[in-house]
Amino acid sequence: FFFHPHPAIRDSSTSRGLGDVYKRQSMDTAFSSEDLKFQSDVREFISNNYPKELKDSIGTKRKTGKELSRDDLMSWHKILGKHNGWSAPGWPKQYGGAEFSPTQKYIFEQECARAECQYIMPFGVNMVGPVIYTFGNDEQKAKHLPGILSGDVFWCQGYSEPGSGSDLASLKTSAVKEGDHYVVNGQKTWTTLAQHADWIFCLVRTNPDAEKPQQGISFLLIDMKTPGITVRPIKLMDGSHEVNETWFDNVKVPVENLIGQENMGWTYAKFLLAHERSGIAGVARSKKALERIKQIASAEMSYGEPLIQDPAFKSKIANAELELSSLEYTELRTLAKDSAGKGPGPESSLLKIKGTDIQQMVTELAMEAVGYYANPHLGTTLSNEYVGPDYATNLSGSYFNFRKASIYGGSNEIQRNIIAKMVLGL
Length: 426
Hints:
Strand order of the largest sheet: 4-5-9-8
Helix content: 40-55%
Order of helices and strands: EHEHHHHHHEEEEEEEHHEEHHHH
Number of helices: 13
Strand content: 5-15%
Number of strands: 11
Distance between the termini: 20 Å
């Protein structure tokens, strides 16, 4: 990667603008005094306001795999939503968001990861929210944005279908306009946390005869309480209920719930996916996970010495840190571009590929670090009492869960095709 600095990076001899800094070779990554003040404020706010009950719930989940409740998932969101719009760091202030600068967003994410805060559910804040305030009308903004910001309304995503995942343009869920309603029929799958959702944003086919399949798709907002919607759980290998299949049987959706223009949904979907892919990178969380792995490797022994001293394992840690550092600077470059009003482009595909690759690498390293205890069956007695160290519990659950990271948000193979077309011109 070619590393461009972000707005927090200062010329070592002057405080020139970003464009001037780009031209110079001598730089450091020190935050400005304003940045450091903001970092201190964020750290103090988390220390004083992050709920102990939520911290305990997450600790229990890590040890036992017990699922978090809807209240657990949204409690931190609600607290941040009451504090100057911090639940939506990138939203404009005119819509109630914090409108953080790229540097502030970076600091905020780093501090939340450092404190191991529950992450904000992305479906409302990072996905449908920006679509609504960018392409929606005034009535849609007034109706939906406050609930997303406050965390009172839980959203889920209706994109993938059986047979239409990476090839999303082939989706078949139909929406036929009848008077002042659309009648929706079809099925969505892998609907994450739909069991908690109040609303779902869906891609639906409104013109089955379009010349290109992308041209016949619309973007609908659907109330999950509408008659005809059925949510069925898809149990994962570890028994958890994270994803679902969602069925639509003659579901009547008011025409006023159409975002933008009919048959223009593919444009809005691409806008949303670019934001989703940028967020998937998860740099701050991966940095925290690597810190934990080094702590584990310092406690685990290999041939009479701490595993962290083993040259082969140490090399794997170093490689992961180098990959993560490269990704971090690429993310900062993307944030700088975003701050210039250009929005995420093909860089989001690069962030998605490398971010999920590193997440999988990190979970694999964690499994390797604990060795025998990574196996949830070998690590328990006949009475199902876990006999390994606390830090080893449920690592296998995380490992297997992150196998899907290279698929959701558009598979990494598709992202490579996007890069080949948009960046390399192939």
